[in-house]
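ARCHIVE RECORD
Type: protein–small molecule complex
Small molecule: pantoate
Source of inputs: curated submission
Record status: active
Notes field left blank by submitter.
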Amino acid sequence: MQGVLLPRMQVVRTISEARAARAEMGRSALVPTMGALHGGHLSLLRLARRQTENVIVSIFVNPTQFGPREDFKRYPRPVEDDLSRCEQAGAQLIFIPEPQEMYPHLFGATQAPAGTPHPLDTIVDFPFLTSVLEGKHRPGHFKGVCQIVAKLFNILRPDLAVFGQKDFQQLRVIRAMVESLNLPIDVIAGPTLRDTDGLAMSSRNQFLSTEERARALSISRALSLAAGEHRSGVRQTNRLITSVQNMLLEQHLNIDYVAAVDADTLRPVQTVDGPTVLAIAARVGNTRLIDNVVLNGD
Ligand code: PAF
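STRUCTURE (tokenized, with ligand):
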């Protein structure tokens, strides 16, 4: 087989290197990630690549978006694999900083003791959008997401940025941030990618045992069931939610929420009249998974 010559990809670890590399690029697309890249991320890269050949990927497991009892420490960090996947997918620039680079006042040499207020403590928040669903179950999560994404946007100055629809609340919050802070960035949504058995691709799937994975399939099956019911005319969300809950409970999943919300306001709706997101967050063993389907959407 003839060898394939891959274009060289630049990997940078500091903010100043990232700024310098970015300055050499034209119209650019950013795909922000926490690494442990899977097919879903790669589809976002491909989507970015269709917009411009200048694709930047950030790989950073952002500590400020994890709660104290969440899986920050055990979050997978297969850096070498991630880099080769990015290269194969045609990324040009990878920004892979350490926590002390991004948050010197929290993790650097001059850090204050944990919990001590500091002049650089930053909060960008959209309380109306972040007090529900994930934000309600993961207090502070979206403050951390907005903080890191705003920093990445400022450092890398992308013209467009790609986010997955699996994290639909995150996507909604990022769009709000871009609009509210007048950031000159187009936010593009990439569809949720699924394994052949239907499970939504997630970096956390690798934590599932074979038995847990089989039970986790009830999440996508429940969403398909509800989407089918909606197609056959069911409009009352309480009926859709009950079908979903029953299917998850049959598999002994621990439900954080099953909700039907307006796709724009994220407020619960009683009937599916406009774009409505049917969203699930549930635990299978120690692994927390989320998934959703948009009813009446585009
Ligand atoms: O979706 C993610 O992987 C993260 O929340 C993001 C957007 C990279 C911010 O850390």
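CURATOR ANNOTATION: DSSP finds eleven helices and nine strands in the chain.
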